[in-house]
Amino acid sequence: MSRTTIAISKFVGSISLGLLTGISYSLATLTVPSLLALPSATTAHHTFTRLRALAITHLRALSLVSGTSLVLAYWLSPRRARHPYLLWTSLTVALGAAGDLWSARQQRLRAVRRGRGDEEFDGSGAGTGRDAPVNGEEVRNAMEGFQVGQMAWAGVSGLGFVMSVVGIWGDVF
């Protein structure tokens, strides 16, 4: 394959991984603490539910783009240019995404055990209806759990980002 295609693949994978790291970090350090400061549990619940759905959708898309680009760059590279950092970086992306999927599965199991089924899958402890009562403690616990998960995802993807930057830098020299 052409060197340009491989270089673009490495670049897209690294930039996507950097975006993934930055979004996860900003969710954990800026967004969730701001939501925790909201005066009403109902407002916090609705805002958090929407934020979480959008954030997870975009983070999973970035993980898919990053992981696929880096693995593709490895497979398309000639044998002498197949650097293992591409696989290690892809592995960190996969670990971060797997942690997110495991966390989502655990929340679904907790909701089913409580007898609430999928209506409680948002993890915030309140019903899906607009007028359903909201328990502030459950909303806070869900937000704090999300915050911890995002910090973990930011740490793992940050490690992968550092590996990809050092690897690309090593390719140049």
Describe the 3D structure.
The protein is an all-alpha fold and 173 residues long. Helices cover 79% and strands 0% of the residues. The protein has helices at residues 3-36, 41-76, 84-113, 136-172. Helix 1 packs antiparallel against helix 2 (41-76) and helix 1 runs antiparallel to helix 4. The radius of gyration is 19 Å and the shape is elongated. The model has no long low-confidence stretch (mean pLDDT 86).
How do the helices and strands follow one another from N- to C-terminus?
HHHH
Q: Note the overall shape.
A: elongated
- Classify the helix fraction into a percent range: over 70%
- Class derived from helix and strand content: mainly alpha
- The overall pLDDT average reads 86
Biggest sheet, open or closed, and with what strands and sense? none
Number of strands: 0
Assembly type of the chains comes to single chain
The share of residues in extended strands comes to under 5%
What is the number of helices? 4
Rg, Cα atoms, Å: 19 Å
Roughly how many Å apart are the termini?
Answer: 21 Å
Low-pLDDT stretches are none
SSE blueprint:
Elements: H1 3-36, H2 41-76, H3 84-113, H4 136-172
Helix pairs in contact: 1-2, 1-4, 2-3, 2-4, 3-4
Explain briefly what this protein structure is:
The protein is mainly α.
Give short descriptive properties of this protein.
elongated; 4 helices; 173 residues; mainly alpha
